[in-house]
Specification:
Helix content: 25-40%
Number of strands: 8
Radius of gyration: 17 Å
Oligomer: single chain
Shape: globular
CATH topology: Protein-Tyrosine Phosphatase, Chain A
Number of helices: 7
Distance between the termini: 36 Å
Largest sheet: 4 strands, antiparallel
Length: 195
């Protein structure tokens, strides 16, 4: 598949007619702001980063990464126990944030790159000294954009360009409020005001 010009210098990944821009459209001044991707993007790009956090997927799903600085914390993308799914615990969130704190050039991923990874990266950014609102805004603005192409008359034609949903897991966010001794609901209000 030939890449169509997208008027950005950002590297991209193509899967099934979808191009995903993996780097921000606006520059980020700090290398302590994590980069968020999905599982397949992380598999392709993990060695471009000094450290990697897998927020949720199991070791069997990411064991092929072979990255020397790879933290894997397994849990499901839920907010309560039901039907055999396991929600993230406070200790798991604390473990990921503490491990990621102070690491530059950090990649954070989950399955879809939308919920567990966004909440985890937000917590790490806060631990690294970013104001919670600024961290949320910067991570959201730098979130991958997916460009969908279709084939018409033998040519790839731009069909749709959308930011990937940025929907931090609310239980992880609640744990972050506790971890950072914040007033209950303070980070969740940032989420609610963004919707």
């Amino acid at each position: 598949m030939t890449c169509l010009p997208c008027h950005t210098s950002s590297p991209c990944v193509r899967n099934n007619g979808i191009m995903t821009t993996l780097t921000p459209h606006s520059p980020v001044s700090s290398d302590l702001l994590p980069v968020i991707v999905n599982l397949e993007e992380a598999r392709e790009r993990c060695h471009e980063f000094e450290s990697v956090i897998t927020a949720g997927p199991s070791l069997s799903e990411v064991g092929d990464f072979g990255h020397p600085k790879h933290k894997i914390v397994e849990f499901d993308d839920v907010t309560s126990h039901h039907f055999g799914y396991v929600p993230p615990t406070f200790d798991q969130v604390d473990e990921m944030v503490r491990w990621g704190e102070g690491r530059s050039n950090l990649l954070v991923h989950c399955h879809a790159g939308m919920s567990r990874s966004t909440a985890t990266a937000w917590g790490i950014a806060i631990a690294n000294g970013f104001d919670p609102q600024e961290a949320f805004d910067r991570l959201k603005n730098n979130h991958p954009v997916e460009t969908h192409y279709v084939q018409r008359g033998g040519k790839h034609v731009l069909e749709l360009r959308n930011p990937r949903p940025f929907i931090p897991n609310r239980l992880i966010v609640k744990h972050l409020e506790t971890l950072f001794n914040m007033k209950p609901g303070s980070l969740r209000r940032i989420l609610d005001s963004a919707n």
